[in-house]
Amino acid sequence: KLKELPLPSTEVARIGIALATALDSLHRQNVIHLDLKPSNILFRPSGEAVLIDYGLSHHTDLPDLMAEQFRLPYGTAPYMAPEQVLGVRNYRRSDVFALGVLLYFFATAVRPFGDPISLKGLKERLWRDPIPPRRWRDDIPAWLQEVILRCLEPNPEKRYPTAAQVAFDLKNPDQIVLTPRGQRLHQDSWLMAFRRKHNRETYAPARKLASQSKFAAAPIILVALDPTTINGPLGRALRDKLQSTLAATPQARAVVMTVLNNNVVALDQNPVVTSPNRHVARMVALKQWAKPLGLGEQAISYHVPEALNTAEAILDYARANHVDHIIMGARAESTVRNLLGAVSAQVSAHAPCTVTVVRRREWPTADVPSEEKHS
What is the CB-side half-sphere exposure of residue 145 using CA atoms within 13 A? Predict the structure, then answer.
């Protein structure tokens, strides 16, 4: 593929998904590669990426002998993250930075920071931003540049927290929230770069990371909502559950989903309403449901798939997007439940991740005040 650079944006995204998925698998085993580059990547016939050469890698549960024995940074110059240049080797977002370099290279045939041979040249990436990819090729979509430049943020805290979230955005470009990064066509001025160079805070994140032994959790959380209960007590209970989960994992990415069920026995089927209008109505309902959470646009996205089987739609989405946690409600007793079975039971039995089923506790009316007194 290197002989064919630059690659079409769709191919860059496809390769990026495979690499991000491989990195996510590696990071879940507490291993940071720290030398991600084209020669250390193989592809199976199925399209899956395989990462090789772990000579510079670090297992976060074991002593880092490389850091103990060598004072100079080790890595491949074009792909090293800024914190690696400063000797920090215990941060998985360093691999996210290298992934961004690869995506930039595949999309433009140019390496964003060149191939410096001196420590001074390596350190430039701490304060000098790369030329935006769209400056090289105007056919690169803004969403792809947004992903690439977010991966290449010099401050690790501004990058994607996990490789899984990179894969999620590349699979769902229509869900990416564009910032000025995505539209940029020029580097920052030399004056701004000079200020960053002499700003001590530029180096502060990397110094702080050196003392971190554990990584902040950044799961992808899927909330599956039933349109018939979204505005009722169960819908509020699900929102409370999501809020408490996000409070414990502030870097999580939330996905709110409801399935447009085309089954003839679906209770909300309305032959008068067209499918596009139903889709828009559901999307609006999801956003209204999530509004009290006060989440930023980059922290939450919405999905309304059409499917005959609600449980299978939820499971397919969870598998394809490496969801870490599914939150859903328990369907109340009904004829539909008796006919189809509980969706939550089917999801819980086959999900590739943790599933939390929320059920609204029913109290005897004599023992508990009415719903109005609770609200």
Answer: 23
**What is the pTM for the complete model shown?**
0.82
Q: Examine the pLDDT at 265 and tell me if it is beyond 60.
A: no
- What number of CA atoms fall less than 13 Å from residue 24's CA on the CB side? 24
Nearest to 91 by CA among 124, 63, 57: 57
Please name which of 161, 311, 308 lies closest in space to residue 222, comparing C-alpha atoms. 311
Mean pLDDT across 194-209: 64
Q: Tell me how many domains the chain contains.
A: 2
Residue partners of 232: CB distance under 8 A and separation at least 6: none
Query: 10 and 54: one domain?
Result: yes
Instruction: Answer yes or no: is 214 within a domain.
Output: no
Q: Tell me the β-bridge partners of 355.
A: 326
Beta carbons of 15 and 106 less than 8 angstroms apart: yes
Residues 6+ apart with CB under 8 A from 194: none
Q: CA distances (Å), 25 to each of 18, 36, 37, 162, 341, in order?
A: 11, 14, 17, 11, 33
**pLDDT per residue over 17-33, tens digit each?**
999 999 999 999 999 99
Convert the pLDDT of each residue in 345-363 to its tens digit: 899 999 999 999 998 766 5
Going by the DSSP 8-state scheme, the letter that residue 108 receives in this structure is H
Q: Give the 3-state secondary structure of residue 53.
A: coil
Print the domain residue range for 164: 2-209
